[in-house]
Amino acid sequence: MKINLNFIEACSLLEKNETTSVELTKIYLKNIKEAKELNCFNTISAEQALDDAEKSDIRRKQGKLKSRFDGIPIGVKDLFCTKNIKTTASSKILSNFIPSYESTVTQNCIDAGLISLGKLNCDEFAMGSTNKTSFYGPVTNPWKSNKSEAKLVPGGSSGGSAAAVAADLCVVSLGTDTGGSIRQPASFTGTVGLKPTYGRVSRWGIIAFASSLDQAGPITKTVEDAAALLEIIAGHDPKDSTSSIKEKESFLDNLNSSVKGIKIGIPKEFKSDGLPVSTQKAWDDCKKLLQSNGAELIDISLPHTMDALPTYYIIAPAEASSNLARYDGVRFGIREEGENLIEMYEKTRSIGFGDEVKRRILIGTYVLSSGYYDAYYIKAQKIRSLIKNDFNQAFEKVDAILTPSTPSTAFEIENEPNDPVQTYLNDVFTVPINLAGIPAISIPFTNDENNLPIGLQLITNSFEEQKLLNIAKNVQDTINYKSVPKNWWKS
Question: What DSSP string runs through 272-287?
């Protein structure tokens, strides 16, 4: 059987009876077992997956499929609550948490007949850009430089989700994106990562980091796969007060790769002397590609882009400090005993949280505290409005915006900067999109001089995912990116 199956190919094989869901599931479980060195999975649900796959095969024989995607193995970021399956957010404080309920997104996948292989490693509480903050240790990028044997970061926080798709440990995966946590790891691993419009996909049952920024989305091998998985997980959810009431759309069936007459904006603020030559070249080549395919390039300005990163790192920690207050050792999660209630809180949270999570809680508590709330938090919210307004004005002139996904390709695990601010700079091209609440996609475009993937980012206005996917498909079909990592972890 062909390796590196994408979602559509796997569905086709099942439809033609050339394989079964059980056979597919066994292949991926074997791949996971052979890829322990990558550390992609926190929990492997082998028994449950095989049982669900068997039920899918029975439904297929009886002609009672839940959907056309019934029987396809998927990986789920360990931030989605899954009934009776451990859900940890890659944190020690939730290392014994087994939810009694299912998140809306994973329930939508169950309702479509998808087979969950387990829970994927991520940065602790989705706080990180490297997947090194996980209590379970870092995920290793399946890609390696052709000039070094050093292990590379997969990006974060959805590092396990991206690495698992790139290493063929699942057909597709679910991630979450608060400031680039789907798009940045997708760029680092040569996969497609889609952050939908805020409210397009329910947040109910997803362990919260920053509630006004978090959004679930797909990580896949192709744009078609992203369209298919988005179709499954999107839709109104009355349990989520921020969920859009827009009707579900048939993103896959409505894919159209024509860009003739489409206006593509090129923001001058994303141009930087510090951008690697290979990334700049990829960006320039993609501009020419779109232009030759019939699109019109228009220079635009997003004047508050440079304010996005500091704004994000005030708002996100502020919301995190509030959301993470619930982890106190009383109702769920681990508990450290103390002589009184306050001491129990202190010990539980001190031992249960990692350094990066503590750092963001402290920053968030500080900016929300008396005397600093107006100076920092309120000001950040005002700048957020200006950033959103920048995009609104840009989309009066253009249909989409093209930028790099990340300032660099994947870097060595051991070479992460000691200064956290330097690590935060990995998100410089992605955080403005979350602050504006609009959709964006990272697609693999080419490889750099070290044979590492370079991703480019496309952005559209709110709820224009169909247009976003169409333009991305045009780029994908033109370049026909086929690079995959070598299976060095199996040797």
Answer: -TTS-HHHHHHHHHHH
Half-sphere exposure of 90 (CA within 13 A, CB side): 37
Cα–Cα dist 156/40, whole Å: 12
117, 74 in Cβ contact below 8 A?
yes
DSSP label at 267?
A: E
- Please, where are the H alpha helices in 234-378? 277-292, 308-323, 341-352, 355-368
DSSP E strands in 181-268: the ranges are: 192-195, 216-220, 263-267
* In contact, 114 and 232? CB cutoff 8 Å: yes
Q: How far apart are CA 289 and CA 281, in angstroms?
A: 12
HSE, side-chain direction, 13 A CA sphere, residue 43: 25
Q: What's the distance, CA 180 to chain centroid? A: 7
> Which residues, given as ranges, of the chain have pLDDT below 70?
1-2, 417-419, 421, 491
Query: What are the C-alpha distances in Å from 154 to residues 35, 140, 164, 244, 248?
Result: 14, 6, 10, 31, 32
Query: What letter does residue 444 receive in the DSSP assignment?
Result: E
What would be the CATH architecture of the domain defined by 7-261+466-490?
Answer: Alpha-Beta Complex (3.90)
Angle at 213 between CA 212 and CA 217, to 5 degrees: 125
Q: Which single residue is written with the structure tokens 């019109």?
A: 296
Characterise 63 by phi-psi region: left (phi > 0), alpha (psi -120 to 50), beta (else).
Answer: left
* Residues tagged active-site: 77, 157, 181
Q: What integer pLDDT is reported at residue 491 of this predicted model?
A: 64
Residue 418: what pLDDT?
Answer: 67
Distance (Å, whole) CA 290 – CA 287: 5
CB-based contacts of 101: which residues, under 8 Å, 6+ apart? 81, 83, 205
pLDDT of 259 reads 96
* Phi and psi, residue 455, nearest 5°: -105, 145
Burial class of 422 by CB neighbour count within 10 A (0 to 12, 13 to 18, 19+): exposed
Tell me the DSSP string of 125-189. Answer: GG--SSS-S-TT-PPPPS---TT----B---SSSHHHHHHHHTTSSSEEEEE-SSSTTHHHHHHH
Instruction: Give the pLDDT score at 415.
Output: 79
d(CA 23, CA 343): 52
Which residue matches tokens 């609550």?
Answer: 81
Query: Nearest CA to 207 among 216, 198, 199, 217?
Result: 216
- Exposed e or buried b per residue across 23-51, where buried means at least 16 C-beta atoms within 10 angstroms of its C-beta: ebbbbbbebbeebeebbbbbbbbeebbbe
pTM of the predicted structure, to 2 decimals: 0.96
pLDDT reported for residue 2: 58
Phi, psi of 192 (to 5 degrees): -100, 125
On the CB side of 467, CA atoms within 13 Å amount to 20
Domains in the chain: boundaries? 7-261+466-490
358: Cβ contacts below 8 Å, ≥ 6 apart: none
